[in-house]
Write a structure and sequence with these properties.
The protein has a 4-stranded mixed sheet, covered by helices on one side. It has 2 domains: 19-48; 50-134, Ribosomal Protein S8, Chain: A, domain 1. Strand 1, helix 3 (62-78) and strand 2 (83-87) form a beta-alpha-beta unit. The chain starts with a helix and ends in an 8-residue tail after the last strand. By secondary structure, it is of the alpha+beta class. It is built from 4 helices and 4 strands, in the order ααβαβαββ.
C-alpha cells in the first residue's frame, strides 16, 4: 500500500460533521482569532486613553527616581490603573545621554507591572515623557 492509499483509507475512516478534527481545529482557530482581535482592540483603546496618573521625576537623582518609580508603579497597580505617564525630561541638562529617561527605560524593563510603552504626545511632554500600559496580573489573596 502506498502513502496515497493510506491517506485515502484514513479519510474514509474519519468521522464527518462537527466532530471531525478539521472542524475542531477551525473552531479553535476562530476562537483564537477572536481573542487576538479583542486584545488588539483593547491595546488600541489603551494607547489612545489619557493616563490614569502622571509622575514627574525632574530633578531627581537616579536612586531617587528609581525609588519613586517603584512606589508609583506599586500604587498604580494596586489601584488597577491601566495607563500611566512618566515625565522625565528630555535630558537637555545631561552631559551625555538623558539620565532620567534611561532610568525610566531600565525600570520599565524590570517592572513586572509594566507592559507596552511609548513616548508621550507633544501635549504631554513628547520626548520628555513616556507612557506605560500596566499589565493585568492576578493578585494573590493574602
Amino acid at each position: 500500500m502506498n502513502f496515497g492509499d493510506i491517506l485515502d483509507k484514513w479519510e474514509k475512516q474519519r468521522p464527518s460533521g462537527g466532530n471531525s478534527p478539521d472542524g475542531e481545529i477551525q473552531a479553535k482557530d476562530t476562537e483564537e482569532k477572536t481573542k487576538q482581535a479583542g486584545a488588539q482592540e483593547k491595546r488600541r483603546r489603551l494607547r489612545n486613553k489619557r493616563p490614569d496618573a502622571e509622575l514627574d521625576i525632574h530633578g531627581q537623582t537616579r536612586d531617587e527616581a528609581w525609588l519613586t518609580l517603584e512606589t508609583f508603579f506599586n500604587n498604580a497597580w494596586e489601584k488597577e490603573f491601566e495607563k500611566v505617564l512618566i515625565i522625565h525630561g528630555k535630558g537637555n541638562h545631561s552631559v551625555d545621554e538623558p539620565i532620567l529617561k534611561r532610568v525610566v527605560m531600565d525600570f520599565i524593563e524590570r517592572c513586572p507591572f509594566a507592559g507596552e510603552s511609548g513616548k508621550g504626545k507633544a501635549s504631554t511632554g513628547g520626548e520628555g515623557a513616556t507612557w506605560v500600559l500596566l499589565k493585568e496580573l492576578k493578585k494573590e489573596i493574602a
